[in-house]
Structures are given as structure tokens and as C-alpha cells.
Amino acid sequence: METKIVDPADLYRLPWTLPDNGISWLEPTARCNLNCYGCYRKNIKHSHKSMEQVKHELDVFQALRKTDCISIAGGEPLLYPHIVELVAEVKSRGLKPIINSNGIELTRELLHELKKAGVFGFTFHIDSRQGRGRGPRWEGKNELELNELRLYYAEMLAAEGGISCSFNSTVYDDTLHYVPELAAWAQRHIDIVHTMVFILFRYITPDLPYDFYTGDKKIVFDEIHYHSDKEEVTNLVAPQIVAEIRKTAPDFKPAAFLNGTHQADDFKWLLTERMGTKDKVLGYMDNKFIEMVMALYHYKNNRYLSYVSPKTLSLGRTTLFSLWAINKGIRSTLKKYLAYLIANPLRIFKRVYMQSIMIIQPVDFMPNGDQSMCDGCPDITVWTDKNGKDQLVWSCRLEEPMQYGEFLHSVPRAN
User: Fold this and answer.
1) Scanning 50, 85, 111, 286, which has the fewest C-beta atoms within 10 Å of its C-beta?
2) How many CB atoms lie within 10 A of CB 405?
3) Domain 8-201+236-314+355-400 has what CATH class?
């Protein structure tokens, strides 16, 4: 029998669904100060929504969907003139405001204002195909050279204190080999980098063997915003990322996942939780640990967990000694930790942290043309159709209903 890189039987299926999730996606603006290759959204200059409209979208979320956090995205949300007010509004509703930003507009002064307003965390998108908007210092830098920039933002948030810090990076075929060192870099900064997210590149390209339709009208592929005129590898899958990381971290072990809408063994969101110090990964949480955390959090808060505070993530040692008796994965990690201490008792002064690695595998095309999406997608947003009806839709394909009034369907191209 072929050994699977990742076996769904070994994983906890994350419990997120359309009406009961951990995350929801809010776009107060489509304006951005970058034009990133690989972005799903058009950069629209005059696109700031009013606070009334944004509040209405929050109302829609809370009427239709339990959620733990609101990802404030775009566009570049720090360009939104009411961003501080918006963060305060999300916080006032008992939700966690997470800002998804490229970071260019972030100053220490603005960060301080956002913290006072209640921001829970930032997810910074930084990768090597973001164009020239960051200035000449960062032009032509590869993924590893951009770690200097990532560290700048991580240290800025750490200096302010109490704010979750995550990084997104789009993974292309020619940047796949950087992933192991990016994961290792995150581990070396486990005290201030709380989550690392790898998003697999997806675009519509000339060699994709499908035609696209709205109703019975065929759409020329280059009319769709997220297209490339070049041939690109657009079918990387999450197990490839795991295999790449295991070249330098052979024990790397995912614990939970979201499947695809069309395939049970698609790993659309693949979550790994690890525990360690700044100089060593001690172990990985197992599927039962994630299941226990999700169930207890939902029992207490009536919603599923998304982001975790830096303070909680710094309680690695407490987690080991309080849960070893009831969880096999924690027990295994505790044994490694004790061996780590025996080898050098002074290591008792090193704090033990927890850290997440998430791999996101967006839309996949089935042989018959069906598009397999994330089942229980966390990045759902609000779209209002021409009749004024509010709907929850996939944020990664929002341009389709905005342009055509519906999601495009694809069929195999005739030979």
C-alpha cells in the first residue's frame, strides 16, 4: 500500500461550517497600495465603503454566521479612513478584529491607536511577487531575504505588546523550495511570530483546459481578473508543502484539516500546531488536542476558535504539565521536553511556546470542470446582489459575482 504524505484518517476535521465558523472576511475597501501578482481582488481607487455599509455587513454576519474573529481585509485595510473606528466596532460586538495588511501604512503611532481600539492581531502578507510598492530596498528580494521585513513587523507588534502576529506568503512553483526555511525562521522567532500561513498559488492561465461560462455565455479567460497570460503551475497541493518541510523537519505532523467540497481527501486548510523554544521544536499537537480545544471553546463561547492571544501561546510549559495525563500528543512532547532539560538544566529558563503553521489550498478543478472549494470556508464575505439581497460568498472569487452577477462555471475545453 502506498504511504500517504498526509492521511485524513490521522487528522481532526475542523468543525467549521457556513453558519458556524471561526473566521469571517470583511472588505471595507478594494483600494490597495500594491498590485500583487496572485491577488484575487481588483485594485479600485475610489472604493471605500461607508461605516454604515460596513456595519450592515457585520450585522449580516452576526445574523447568519457564528464567528470568532473578523478578518478586516481588502484591498489594503490600513488605507480605509475609518480603520480605527472599524476595529472598535468589531471589538464592541464581542469579536476579535484581525487586520490583513501588507503593512506599508503601519506606523507605531497607528498601531498604538489600533491597540487602544481593540485590535486582536495582524496578518501580514509578504512575498517576493508584490511588485514595486514597497520601495527599492525590497525589490528583487527572495523569500528568505524578506525575512528581515517580516521580523521588522513582528518586533513592532511585540514592542506594542499583546497583539497576535501572523504572516501569509503565496507559494509558487519556483518559491516552493523556500518553504522549509520560512517555517524554520518562524520557529526561531516562535516568541513573536504566532502563525505562518502558506497559500498555494491559483490563477486562470492559457493552458488550463477549461472554458468559463456565465449562464450559456462563454467568457474569454482574460476578462477574469485573476488570470495570467503566462503558463504557470497552478496545481500545487498541500501534501507537497508538507513533503518539502519534512526535508529539514522530518517530524513535521499536521493535526487538522478542512476538506474540499468535491473531494474528502483534499486538504484545503491544513493545520499544524507545534510546541517549542526559540532553538528547538519539542513536538506537535495531535488531532485529539485540536478536537478538545475546539469542543471546549465552543462549549464555553458558542463559537469555534480562530486566533489565540500571545499570552496563551506562551503557556507551553503549563499546557504540557496540565494536559499530559489526558492527551497522548502532549505526553509525547513532555517526554521530549524533560529529555531536553536533562541534557541542560539551565534550559528551564527558556519559555516554551505554541505556534501554528497553516497551509491553504484554494480552488481545484475537477476533471468534469467542477471547482472544488473549501468546505466550510473561513474566508466567507458578504455580497449584495442587484436585487439588494445579502449573500455569503467566497472572498477568493468575489470578482465573479461582482462582475457577472454569479459565480462562473467551468467545463472541459473541447479538443
Assistant:
1) 50
2) 12
3) alpha beta
